[in-house]
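Usage

Read records sequentially. Each one opens with the input sequence:
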Amino acid sequence: MKNSFKSVIFALVFGSFMTTANIVKANDRDSASNEVILVRGAEANFANFMTKKAKKLVKTSDWNVFIEVVTLYNDSPSKFMTLSADKKEAFVTAVENIEVKLNKVRGSEAKVWKQKVTTTAAVIKVLWNYQSNVESTDTEQTVAPAAIEMLGR
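and closes with the structure output:
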């Protein structure tokens, strides 16, 4: 009797442990596929999706600019932050064109990718705006001390 009771307790504990482990594993897998922005690896999955669903768009310069900027964002933040104003404008235009194309593609997966593109573009724009604000503040600080020295003479 004691032996079978111990076996039942062991089976219950082991079963609950395995169930918990499977739930945690499923949650990890789901959270990885539900990234909000196009982070490392996600841009490659997006490129695969677009290659299948939007073959003409993938051959355009808009697509090349978009992939270049997102790749720089993920791989080299210093190069990403030093992009020219022309490249930044081209990126904004590319995002708009990609969003238009994704609106035309049927399926829920296209809607998810569109949301990720929109969110990624918003994050990138915020970083660029922050950089321009910091640069303008730095310019003001370097000019101000020179004016004060001149007044003191």
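Summary fields computed downstream for this record:
- The chain has a mean pLDDT of 76.
- Residues 71 and 86 are 17 Å apart (CA to CA).
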